[in-house]
Design brief:
The protein is an alpha+beta fold. It has a single domain, classed as Winged helix-like DNA-binding domain superfamily/Winged helix DNA-binding domain (Arc Repressor Mutant, subunit A, Orthogonal Bundle). Helices cover 58% and strands 15% of the residues. A 3-stranded antiparallel beta sheet has the order 1-3-2. Strand 2 and strand 3 form a beta hairpin. Helix 1 packs across helix 2 and helix 1 packs across helix 4. The relative contact order is 0.17. It holds the Pfam family PadR. InterPro entries: Metal_resp_DNA-bind_regulator, Tscrpt_reg_PadR_acidobac-type, Tscrpt_reg_PadR_N, WH-like_DNA-bd_sf, WH_DNA-bd_sf. This is PadR family transcriptional regulator. It comes from Acidicapsa dinghuensis.
């Protein structure tokens, strides 16, 4: 497993957290995650778009068509009220898991 492989469910958390800031199209989400992680996390389209569809299916995000920065048609994703609640639950879970892992690694 490489350093950039993500634990199952972590990508969902990263997407939800990114969309909590503002609505974005898929490429923008991937770029933001890469940028904020200082290039440590690079999300490929083969992982990103299935995750976006899964989150939309669960009702945690919603999508609507709009124009991108270069005036191309793009699907913009935003967090729903249910998604905001899920983000809080995921952040709490992440805190518990990361604390437990840190204890084991000591």
């Amino acid at each position: 497993m490489s350093a950039t492989d993500l634990l199952q469910g972590t990508l969902d958390l990263l997407i939800l957290r990114t969309l909590a800031l503002e609505s974005m199209h898929g490429w923008g989400i991937a770029q933001r995650i890469q940028q904020v992680s200082k290039d440590a996390l690079q999300i490929g389209q083969g992982s990103l778009y299935p995750a976006l569809h899964r989150l939309e299916y669960k009702g945690w995000i919603q999508a609507e068509w709009g124009a991108s920065e270069n005036n191309r048609k793009a699907k913009y994703y935003s967090l729903t009220r249910t998604g905001q609640k899920q983000l809080q639950a995921e952040l709490e879970d992440w805190g518990r898991i990361s604390t437990a892992i840190a204890l084991v690694l000591k």
